[in-house]
TrEMBL record:
InterPro entries xref list: HTH_LacI, LacI/GalR-like_sensor, Lambda_DNA-bd_dom_sf, Peripla_BP_I
UniProt-listed SMART domains: HTH_LACI (SM00354)
Record-linked SUPFAM superfamilies: lambda repressor-like DNA-binding domains (SSF47413), Periplasmic binding protein-like I (SSF53822)
Pfam family, one: LacI
Coiled coil: none
Domain HTH lacI-type residues, every copy: 5-59
Protein name (database record): LacI family transcriptional regulator
Domain of life: Bacteria
CDD domains per UniProt: HTH_LacI, PBP1_LacI_sugar_binding-like
Keyword annotations of the record: DNA-binding, Transcription, Transcription regulation
Species the sequence originates in: Parapedobacter pyrenivorans
One Gene Ontology MF term: transcription cis-regulatory region binding
Length: 338
């Protein structure tokens, strides 16, 4: 056998066409499952490595997927990337990463200068104050498949993969109520983001379900950092009426609240309830440990990439889809009254 195995070698051994081998390796929908299995088995046996440049020229594709996201140091996004990588690499795709640092100016610059000729498709999680709607719509109109995940633009007609923000928020607030808390505040994310709106809606509907008052002063919008959570608690503490619990839009903000409460000598759990959203590793380490709604970040990454690859294969024959994945409530010490 030659030192470098090509799809021509696989086609010759199996006595099938080169195009069939290429489509089987891309998991195209029009390949017989038995044939696909034979191709994949032989490719693995011969340690076949795709020639990305050649496959791009021959098939009109580059085997590259772009990923635009706000952070890479954030636990949630690191897990999303892990899920994307698993699917992409298994299907013979490279990933090209663009990090916006949650800056709308940086995001605009990335999208405006995106070389879509070198990408078969793009996965996107937008920044907090994204203003790139028109640019994403233009990319899609020009024929580049785009799938949004987590932080999505509701106004853009594209496929999306998100966690169930509404029901996760509802369950978080319901948990606080069942633990005996009745004056529940919400420290939210930036007002313009879809998932901020959905988590706020879940919070409000849970209060209504249990007949609890909605205090506008107890809804505070800001960023996503621990420092934002600390500052939000300061805002709540300066009001005429103080809450006895907080539902935070993410764990980092909830941890900021816990730290500020501890500085004030307030017992978190027995006297003041705190619940977050994400299940960041820090939530299990901090004392008291943080109750939260675990997001399926790894699965969001996997399903986003799988959905994008379906778009790439079927192009204009693929209908826009939206996938919503459930979260899981994890009760810890920060909401335990006894």
């Amino acid at each position: 056998m030659p030192e470098h195995i090509t799809i021509k070698d696989i086609a010759r051994i199996l006595n099938i066409s080169v195009s069939t081998v290429s489509r089987a390796l891309r998991d195209a929908y029009d390949v017989n499952p038995e044939t696909r299995e034979k191709v994949l088995h032989l490719a693995k046996e011969l340690d076949y490595k795709p020639n990305f440049n050649a496959s791009g020229l021959a098939g009109g594709g580059t085997r590259n997927i772009g990923i635009i996201l706000p952070f890479i140091t954030n636990y949630y996004f690191s897990m999303v990337i892990t899920g994307i990588q698993e699917v992409a690499y298994a299907k013979g795709y490279n990933i090209v990463l663009y990090v916006t640092n949650d800056s709308p100016e940086r995001e605009m610059d990335v999208v405006r200068n995106l070389n879509t000729q070198n990408l078969d498709g793009v996965l996107v999680s937008v920044c907090s104050d994204s203003a790139a709607n028109n640019y994403f719509e233009q990319i899609i109109a020009e024929g580049t498949p785009v799938v949004f995940f987590d932080r999505v633009l509701g106004s853009v007609d594209a496929s999306k993969v998100v966690q169930d923000d509404y029901n996760g928020a509802f369950e978080a607030v319901e948990h606080l109520v069942k633990q005996g808390f009745s004056r529940i505040a919400h420290i939210a994310g930036p007002a313009g983001l879809d998932f901020t709106k959905h988590r706020l809606a879940g919070y409000l509907d849970a209060l209504e379900r249990y007949g609890l008052p909605v205090e506008p002063a107890w809804i505070v919008h800001s960023g996503f950092s621990q420092a934002d959570g600390e500052a939000d608690l300061e805002v709540l503490w300066e009001g005429k009426e103080r809450p006895d619990a907080v539902f935070a839009v993410n764990d980092r903000k909830a941890i900021g609240v816990i730290l500020q409460l501890k500085k004030r000598g307030i017992r978190v759990g027995p006297d003041f309830g705190v619940i977050g959203f994400t299940d960041d590793p820090m939530s299990a380490i901090i004392s008291p440990s943080l109750s939260t709604v675990a997001e399926p970040a790894y699965e969001v990454g996997k399903q986003s990439c799988e959905l994008l690859l379906q778009h790439i294969v079927r192009k204009n024959n693929f209908q826009v889809r939206e996938i919503t994945l459930p979260g899981v409530l994890i009760a810890r010490e920060s909401t335990r009254r006894s």
